[in-house]
Amino acid sequence: MTDNTRDLVILGGGLVGMTLALAAAKKGMSSHVIDRADPAELTAEGFDDRATAISTASWHLFENIGIAEGLDQFACDIAAIAVTDQNKPGRLDFVPGEGGGTLGRMFPNRRLRLALFEAAAKEPLINWVAKANVTERQRSEYGVAAVLADGQKLKGRLMIAAEGRQSPTRDQAGISIAKWDYKHRAIIAGLTHEKPHGNVAWEIFYPAGPFALLPLNDDADGTHRSSLVWTVSEADGAGVMKLGDRAFLAEVEKRMGGVLGKVKTVGHRSSWPLGFHHTAKITSERLALIGDSAHGIHPIAGQGLNLGLRDVGALVEVLADGARLGLDPGDPELLKRYETWRGLDSFMVALATDGLTRLFGVRGKTASAVRRLGMAAVQRTPMLKSFFMDEARGVSGDLPEILRA
């Protein structure tokens, strides 16, 4: 190249943005990836103790971009999902049949970042600019550019907003957004416990919100580990975070109902506000939104990152198809196809998670009894259970080729 113009200018080098850059490179597309954060801080021990459920389809994406082999040793399979309403009778179990594989894999966020960052550093089609602040975003019918605080001007043909929920690129483009605050916080911590988890993910619903126990690999000495995602009201969040370890563990054990035995230790606790947002559209002139820049959902079903990775797969397929026809990555018809493909699917997933949040948040014995009757009906209906398991795996609907085995 005679100048620094690349196919894509990706603003945001997190899990979704960097996956896009790697997936695009596999199709021969070059990119600038610009991120404010310091990758050394993001991958430091203890910086982010969260763990993420990776669906079957997302795992295929990781296989197809070449990072799955290095990640495999850190995966903890989700062999089953158990759903209960306050540990009362009427439990719903999702267990794949023989040969059905897993319902996903759990990974520490740090390991996902390390795998993506190491692959990106080796990829010549990716120009990764970290610790950079974008001072100006330029888009016209002829191309796009990001001007950095140090004076660099990185040019491309299509701008991608992958900056997360507070995306300045989305806001600058004037894309309207529907959003609301659940007035809940997710308390996240790693736990060690007495009983093995058996690769079962637990989703225990309480009126204040879901209480999830997600399986992690045992420590080298055989200590059993899980990741806790405990939703509490905004009013209670600060108090829960201030509890001493002994009091915190007592509250956790009370809600667990003995499913993992005695809780031994708790790791670093973090607290995250929960809200919903969804944009009216996900494209503009030479601009596409992916991941949380376009949609933010409740973690109730563990689909947030996976939804963003489906955006990645669809966008890369659309752009690769266009390249074969000699079309520019910013061609309006290509962006229209991406909008059509992802707009409805992401909206339906967002509505479903919002509906579940509200359904299980209705208080009272009658509401609990109705929910448990509904779960019992699903438990007895193999077709419905298969549908929900396919949704959890991310293998339903019009799936991009890069998310297939």
TrEMBL record:
* Pfam families listed in its UniProt record: FAD_binding_3
Cofactor names = FAD
Q: Mind telling me which SUPFAM superfamilies this protein's record contains?
A: FAD/NAD(P)-binding domain
Q: Name one GO biological process term.
A: ubiquinone biosynthetic process
Entry's PANTHER family? UBIQUINONE BIOSYNTHESIS MONOOXYGENASE COQ6, MITOCHONDRIAL (PTHR43876)
Q: Which family does it belong to?
A: Belongs to the UbiH/COQ6 family.
Recorded protein name is 2-octaprenyl-6-methoxyphenol hydroxylase
Give the source species.
Answer: Erythrobacter ramosus
